[in-house]
Amino acid sequence: PSLLYAYDALEPHIDEETMRLHHQKHHASYVAGLEGLSTSTPSNSCLHNLLGGMFSNGGISEKDKDILARFGGGHYNHSLFWQYMSPESSKADMSPFLTDRIKSDFGSFEEFKREFNDKSAKVFGSGWCWWVFNTKQAKSFIATTKDQLNPIMDDVHNVCLLGLDVWEHAYYVKYRNERVKYIDSWWEVVNWDMVSQIHDKIALNGKQLEISDDG
């Protein structure tokens, strides 16, 4: 999928070289890997349906589950990740409902950010950190997944409000092994308008998140 902004648009927080490599090489490799599925390569909306609760889905072969966990998750996670960021990031874009959600589930934005940062930094090896809203429990929480797994794979009621890629390829060109600096800087490009839309229009209505084929 194409990006909604230029490769250098997130500078100085996310550098242009990293964005090009991340999008053109890493993300593209996950899309290519889906060709190994026994069915035709799914669109993003169909991919979402395949990933949702897939580990308990007896209708998906073990071979396809492995492909979906690696390549399907990689494609889906990155398609979300690009949308979670914007060169016009501003906390002023947070909706009142989103602000209330943070206060209700974490006490304050500072506590929410502290927990997210802590769990992101402690992901061992490669993985992701997510802010997840569970539509059945009507509550949000911070979760981490290894490799290219996603919280929706375990529970179809999970909606990913926000996610951060902490694989080294997401930050090593600029930040080397200093993941914490990358995490701190990433907050400056969070697309709070997008996060608010996911929360207000999807999570609060008990729906699931789907992404378009354009990103």
From TrEMBL:
Residues 98-197 form the Manganese/iron superoxide dismutase C-terminal domain. Keywords: Manganese, Metal-binding, Oxidoreductase. GO terms for molecular function: metal ion binding; superoxide dismutase activity. GO terms for cellular component: cytoplasm. Mn(2+) binds at residues 22, 78, 165, 169. Residues 1-86 form the Manganese/iron superoxide dismutase N-terminal domain. It comes from the Eukaryota. Its EC number is 1.15.1.1. The keyword Metal-binding applies. It catalyses: 2 superoxide + 2 H(+) = H2O2 + O2. Signal peptide: none annotated. Belongs to the iron/manganese superoxide dismutase family. Destroys superoxide anion radicals which are normally produced within the cells and which are toxic to biological systems. This is Superoxide dismutase. It comes from Homalodisca liturata.
